[in-house]
Amino acid sequence: MALAILGTMIGPLLIVLHTIPRGLFAGVFFVVGYGGLEGSGITAKALYLMRESRFIPATHPYRQIAREKIVHYVAWQALGIATTVAISQTIAAIGFPVLIIAPIPLRWMILPRWFTIQELRILDAPTADNDVVLASLSGKPSWKGADGEADDKVDDEKDAKDVARSLSNGDVENGEGTARQRVGAYRRE
């Protein structure tokens, strides 16, 4: 890794890099940044809160949770983002890793007191939900409540992958998910 970093700083490669227009780099980073925002869980929750309920499918997982609880969860996420951005703009930026690690006990010990296991399962689904990735991490995570006991009431078939798929529009051609609402196609009954 160190050799790769040093290799990018040698003269001939810097000359080649200077021939690439800066607008190209800016465009690539813009597209990557937009992709990160579009696929972000906090963005999905914020968009859900802004939508009218008539445009939200009845099978949407967030419908199982009170809107106030979703707002509460998003507020915690926004506070985490604000503190990490704020500390990175000061001389105390060396403490940035502490702010990245600090939410682990918060999620592990405090949030289960405010939210049920099923709510946390929907709001805080694992990012790594591929079976191969989970196998390399010693299997699917177990969901424990504030009392430290595993929740037996949660259906194991409704895992994080199902939740993530139902958050998207799903596969409309195969009968999963819902088709997008067309303008003017809403009929009151």
Description:
Helix content is 55%, strand content 0%. The chain has helices at 2-8, 11-19, 22-38, 41-50, 67-88, 96-101, 103-114, 117-123, 131-136, 160-167. Helix 4 packs across helix 5.
Question: What is this entry, summarized?
Answer:
With 189 residues, the protein is mainly alpha-helical.
Keywords:
189 residues; single chain; disordered C terminus; mainly alpha
Calculate Rg over CA atoms.
Answer: 21 Å
Count helical runs: 10
- How far apart the termini lie comes to 63 Å
Q: Catalogue the unreliable spans.
A: 152-160, 166-173, 181-187
Topology record:
Elements lengths: L1 H7 L2 H9 L2 H17 L2 H10 L16 H22 L7 H6 L1 H12 L2 H7 L7 H6 L23 H8 L22
